[in-house]
Amino acid sequence: MEKWSLMTITVLLALTVRWTVSLGSYSGAGKPPMYGDYEAQRHWQEVTYNLPIRQWYFNTSDNNLLYWGLDYPPLTAYHSFLCAYVAKLINPDWIALHTSRGYESQSHKLFMRTTVFVADLLIYIPAVILYCCSLKETSTKKKVSSALCILLYPGLILIDHGHFQYNSVSLGFALWGVLCLSYDWDLLGSAAFCLALNYKQMELYHSLPFFCYLLGKCFKKGLKGKGLLLLIKLAGTVVASFAVCWLPFCTDVEQIMQVLRRLFPIDRGLFEDKVANIWCSLSVLIKIKNVVSPQTQLKLSFAVTFLSLLPTCIKLTVQPSLRGFKLTLVSCALSFFLFSFQVHEKSILLVSVPVCLIINEVPFMATWFLLVSIFSMLPLLLKDGLLLPYAVTTLAFLSACVASFAIFEKTSAKDLQLKPFSQSLRGYVSWFKLFPKIVRSLFLLSVTLMGVLSVMSAAVHPPQRFPDLFPVSVSSISCLHFLFFLVYFNVIILWDSKNSRNQKKVS
């Protein structure tokens, strides 16, 4: 009873923070002609309500794809239609074809904010609460602390309830998938992840861990018996889930191809804005977009991404375990973010949410990563006028993590899950005993640097010769952090001896 009382208070606190942030500015507020993501979501409601399904993804006189054309999978389109149906009942002017373009008002802002709030409340928050309650060998205090820190993570709150998007829907479905797999409900887990993938194509970041984990379970059960039956059931579930989502677009091949072209626009280039990945950081020294052709950029990014995630995916397939699955979700998503094609700064949320899932296992490193992930989006947040929410929610999140997990006391090799790795280095690296002090010092240096750069980005005008000095500094420093974390997570996965012990539970 006490656990559920504390969880209720946690949810109420999380909802209060979300609604408070939503009172502020949003993407593109008062900035014609394109406005921003807020207008994009409103425009999709206009298009899906007023036009027949066959025109949603096609360029027509009523649907100019150059003006926020729909470029997300069918489930997003259906969600936009549902929101539009409600909007029509309240005020038809909000979604009137053509004339509603750029519509802004306090009542409309309240409606749009409410749609995000409701989606978060119905899909993401219940998944977080049930996931934390399902944690095994964990005290009630730690379960509540995990829920508190996950629900107060500022990155998702600032982007969804500040900037304005519906990331909580796709991430919530993915989290439902993880939750189902933790209970061995493999078919439900597969269906939930298919919903996530059909809401946002960026969920491909998580697809390989789901695939490798389930394939590994099939191998362990034996492909001549129960394993083969499970594989057939999983394949059927995936096909059925996609068929239901895509059914209205299956009238002809051209419809399907046009949707796919909208989902994967190669001509947009390697990256957009100042994203904290390797290609944007390297472009400071080498203008990759000018030197390498778009087709070569695509091939290069694919090759590097594939090679960076291959070792952990192989290990997960050979040694499937729930712990290994969650860690591989982190490493694979981070590899995609750092090396893949057409990455946005907001895509770091696809790494951050899996990191949230292991905050009770490696609280120090998880907290550090999550702080960097928020910082990496600073240029976008400043553009949207979200400096105050950024500062307050980040400090509140850090305080919650320090109070809940005493993170500065969790820096030993054992606490950081590096004991197997340290034992393999014993006799070769004498300074490993000093690692706890080193990592604490690096953390404090990192937080100080992020704090100073945040203040300078907000208060200091850059030199005229270098107008992008602060955004580039933020993205480059964040990228260096992410490369460090990629190495760290790969090390604990590849040297993890617990996985092999957990195989028996899976099989």
Helix/strand/pairing class, anyone? mainly alpha
Order of helices and strands: HHHHHHHHHHHHHHHHHHHHHH
* Overall strand count: 0
Report, as a whole number of angstroms, the end-to-end distance: 34 Å
Task: Summarize the main sheet.
Answer: none
Parts with pLDDT < 50 across at least 5 consecutive residues: 500-507
Strand content: under 5%
Shape: globular
Determine the number of helices (DSSP H or I, runs of at least 4 residues).
22
Radius of gyration: 23 Å
Helix content: 55-70%
> What do the pLDDT scores average to?
92
Structural commentary:
This protein has 507 residues and is mainly α. Helices cover 69% and strands 0% of the residues. The chain has 22 helices and no strands. Helix 5 (140-151) runs antiparallel to helix 18. The longest helix is centred in the middle third of the chain and has 40 residues, at 207-246. It is globular, with a radius of gyration of 23 Å. It starts with a helix and ends with a helix. The relative contact order is 0.10. The model is unreliable at 500-507 (pLDDT under 50).
